[in-house]
Amino acid sequence: MKNVTDSFVSLGHWPSAGSFGFNTDILATNPINLSVVLGVLIFFGKGVLSDLLDNRKEKILNTIRNSEELRGGAIEQLEKARARLQKVEMEADQFRVNGYSEIEREKLNLINSTYKILEQLENYKNETIHFEQQRAINQVRQRVFEQALQGALGTLNSSLNNELHLRTINANIGLFGVIKEITD
Q1: CA atoms of 40 and 22, how far apart (whole Å)
Q2: pTM (whole model) above 0.85
């Protein structure tokens, strides 16, 4: 391994007038390497990301459809409740003398309970949509992070000697710990 490193170091000492050489300064070349790795990840990973987003979109749309079906059922219940209300109103005309206030109370309770059910279903739909969106975002973030990490590790493993490799790993572990704390 030392011979390979020495050959790269000796290549770095070639005269710079019109020749090609390797920059062995890891701090100067690391941002360039990372930008190249990120560019490659974006270029090759956009299909995977697009597929993930399409799948998540389908799940969210299915959830919305299910919520709309539930909403349709609630509207159906509301219509049934209105029909029942009309029936109760007809009975109220017949029994107005004996129980007008009781019938009005039942009518209001029926309408209130139906609206509460509708509100609960609407809230459930909105919570489900929000939950699915957050889950999709978190999955996409996780996948992109894993792919970036794999690409960066592959590049680092293929281009560093043991000493530089260990120093870079230690620095990146600290960096990822900070990033994880920020995202949590």
Answers
A1: 21
A2: no
